[in-house]
Amino acid sequence: MKNFTYLDGGSLLCNQDKTSRKKLQGDDSLAAAPKISCNYDNEADEEKTISFLEHKELGSLQFTLKYDLRRSQLNVNILRGEDFPLISSSNVSFTYVVVELQPFSQKYEAKAQTRYARNSISPVFNDTIHYQIPVQELQGQTLLLSVYDINHLSAHDLIGSVKINVDGNFLASGAERIYKENLKFEDDNPKLVGEILVGLRWKKDKETLDVTIQEASSLRIMDQDRHTSSPYVKIQVFINSFLVLKKRTKVEKKTLSPKFRKTFSVHVPGDSLTRNTQLVLTVKHVAKFRRKHVIGQLYFGLDAKASTSEQWEIIRKGSEYVEMWHELDAPLDNSTWQSRSKVNYLLFEDNNSDDNHSLAELSDRSDTRSDSALLRYSRSF
User: Which interval of the chain is the signal sequence (predicted)?
Assistant: First the structure.
């Protein structure tokens, strides 16, 4: 049996008995299991498969919850699954369960998984995960258990998940509760990509805009194998649709709640902060082979949403430093940029390329002429 122990701050201890390393024997019932192919030739095939999963019986998961009052510890014991569908076209099943306790897991990044179960549509896990959490915090927690099938060619495939509200009052008595819940397929909402804490200060006398990237939280998981992300933030400032600043923070590896604590300054002449300036923050994930993928974006200035417009208005009227949390927007898609400005077009091109290509080359040229560009802006005001 493998035990995960989460201590304060989300540190992890892992112990595994030798007996649990033995592979499960092949299950003859694999031949009769429902088969779902996830080797997609195009996006339409993928959408059909997802639609099928949403209406298919996906099996069930059996587990128990028990709270240890002496240790202030919640024990989640994943017992077994029943009648999982076959995801792989090779008729081989490698399944495991990812366990999250929300919002506890988001605060401490305390996410764990069971061992892999091989060649069985009704796998036996018998893995226990321990959460070090005060009894008074149990009420209001949500337990999410997601069953995945290992895909060696791409991101692991979600079979289905179970979500329950933790009954803190019942567990506080020390009693054990047994669950057997049917799996449901719920595709992640792409709009819920995370939050970011941004500080802004407009020094009108010095014609300088200070942008501070403090931290982010609850970022979307981009590395499905490790159930984490390696994010950084790119800062772009446009004046009259010209890119005059492009900077980035360092990469914070393997975290969904990165701390950046980085300030950038850009010269913004005259009163162009209100009329012509756009600030765009793009949170990206560094994947294998240094490929970059957009997690989410945030816009200040023209065409901005209400929350960022509020912060923009506050700094425009004074010189105080203002910090606010904002929900990240999903990255621009093909239909979005076509109906909007040149800046949106450049951002769309940037989102669909690595930082070392395409828009980066254009940005380098913009950076080299930024002084002359700003001089032209100054003369125009």
Answer: none
- For residue 88, the model assigns a pLDDT of 62
Q: Where do the CATH 2.60.40.150 domains begin and end in the chain?
A: 59-183, 195-332
Relative to beta strand 73-82, strand 277-286 is: unpaired
The residue with greater pLDDT, 346 or 179, is 179
Best CA proximity match to 327, nearest among 298, 294, 368: 298
The segment with the largest mean pLDDT, out of 50-59, 105-114, 223-232, 369-378, is: 223-232
**What is d(CA 259, CA 278) in angstroms, rounded to the nearest whole number?**
24
Give percent of the chain with pLDDT exceeding 90. Answer: 29
Mean predicted lDDT score pLDDT of the chain: 74
Average the pLDDT over each of 135-139, 224-228, 346-350 and give the range with the smallest value.
346-350
Mention every residue, 6+ apart, whose C-beta is less than 8 A from residue 156.
Answer: 148, 149, 150, 224, 225
CATH topology of domain 59-183: Immunoglobulin-like (2.60.40)
Map residue 292 onto helix, strand or coil.
Answer: strand
Strand, helix or coil for residue 25: coil
CB neighbours of residue 208 within 10 Å? 13
Amino acid, single-letter form, for residue 125: F
pLDDT band at 221 (very low <50, low <70, confident <90, very high): confident
Spatial CA neighbour of 330 closest among 279, 380, 373, 294:
294
**Is-contact 266 211, C-beta < 8 A?**
yes
Strand pairing category for 259-267 and 208-217: antiparallel
Residue 222: exposure state from Cβ atoms within 10 A (0-12, 13-18, ≥19)? buried
97: which 2 tokens? 């369960």
What is residue 28's predicted lDDT score, i.e. its pLDDT? 46
Token pair 């994943």 is found at 78
Write out the H or E segment, with its range, that includes residue 309: helix 306-317
Q: Provide the pairing of β-strand 242-248 with 231-239.
A: antiparallel
